[in-house]
Design brief:
With 340 residues, the protein is of the alpha/beta class. The chain contains twelve helices and twelve strands. Helices cover 31% and strands 22% of the residues. It starts with 5 loop residues before the first strand and ends in a 23-residue tail after the last strand.
């Protein structure tokens, strides 16, 4: 296997608050391969967006890292200078945010905003070259009549069009990695599908690596190659999309899947929400952060953080129920332990 383009190793990200230290990410590790779309899923407060903002170093002033490495093309971004990070941010790693209305300037025409991104991140680019490239990007993201739209302000475009502009800005400098933080949340289902197909098309065409952050497993199924499941600032499970949907290895992943409607389910069947609330990361649990909401929890889960257990070469889970010594009674994963 090729060397990954991005490696997150034992990342710890916290926030100073009046109440104390909020430990938002608590030892996260994963890799992003060249040309793949990696989904990061979990409920609000699980650490998804904090991880993305840590990669780009655009966290608020009260954030800090206690441990970890973010290695991009062999260099640790956490040890890079502000000047070095500016060259990476936007030019080599770009981001598409959830709400384009808060990311786009309401006072500047969209064409000028794409131009500005190119002039800022592409060394030696002239204004004319930036204009040509900006128009090219509007065509690539399938905005009709790009010459006319070029002169529009953000409020003159629909939500789907604004999100296409955000994608055009993110891709205008030919980055190697794009981080998309819930970019389809505010869109209706039809437009959402169009944006997902566009991202997939652009990824394949430009040989991009994509980190796609979402709470929607339906989106993951349509778009991603692999998935990392986060909860309470920790990685609960990681595997291919097929493995997670067909053979989930963590009760939290099972709970997420059960709370999503399926095409083939009984129309009178009720969805099964996960009871309870996410843990307080001011004082995170000593053991598994999911134990208080888990219907399969054991006494060990309260006091000991689960080890990473490999279910296959590409599939891992941090759940004691997958351990070879776990009892079979009441264990949803008991059959997998045969032959271990």
């Amino acid at each position: 296997m090729e060397e990954p383009i991005l490696q997150i190793e034992n990342l710890h990200t916290s926030f100073h608050t009046r109440a104390g230290e909020v430990q938002a990410v608590r030892g996260l590790s994963f890799q992003l391969q060249k040309g793949e779309i990696l989904g990061i899923v979990g409920e609000s407060g699980s650490g998804k967006s904090v991880t993305a903002l840590s990669i780009l170093d655009v966290l608020p002033e009260n954030a800090f890292h206690t441990e970890g490495k973010i290695i991009f093309e062999g260099k640790d971004l956490l040890k890079s200078t502000k000047k070095e990070l500016r060259k990476v941010r936007g030019g080599q790693i770009s981001m598409v945010f959830q709400d384009p209305m808060t990311s786009l300037s309401p006072l500047m025409k969209i064409g000028k905003q794409i131009e500005e991104a190119i002039l800022q991140n592409v060394q030696g680019a002239t204004k004319e070259q930036a204009r040509v490239k900006a128009l090219e990007m509007l065509r690539k993201v399938h905005i009709p009549d790009p010459e006319s739209r070029y002169e529009c302000y953000p409020h003159e475009l629909s939500g789907g069009m604004r999100q296409r502009v955000m994608i055009a800005i993110a891709l205008s400098c030919d980055p190697k990695i794009v981080i998309a933080d819930e970019p389809t949340t505010a869109l209706d289902v039809t437009i959402q599908k169009q944006i997902l197909l566009l991202l997939k098309e652009m990824c394949r065409e430009m040989q991009l690596s994509v980190i796609f952050i979402t709470h929607d497993l339906g989106v993951v199924a349509q778009l991603c190659d692999r998935v990392v499941v986060l909860y309470g600032g920790l990685k609960m499970e990681e595997g291919t999309v097929f493995e997670l949907f067909e053979n989930p290895g963590h009760p939290y992943t099972m709970g997420l899947l059960e709370s999503v409607p399926r095409v083939n389910q009984d129309k009178n069947a009720r969805l099964q929400p996960i009871p309870g609330s996410p843990p307080d990361l001011l004082s995170p649990p000593q053991g598994c952060p999911f134990y208080s909401r888990c219907r399969y929890a054991r006494r060990l889960c309260v006091s000991e953080r689960p080890e990473k257990i490999m279910l296959s070469q590409t599939h891992s889970s941090a759940c004691w129920l997958n351990h070879p010594g776990a009892p079979a009674v009441g264990n949803p994963f008991a059959e997998r332990q045969v032959g271990r």
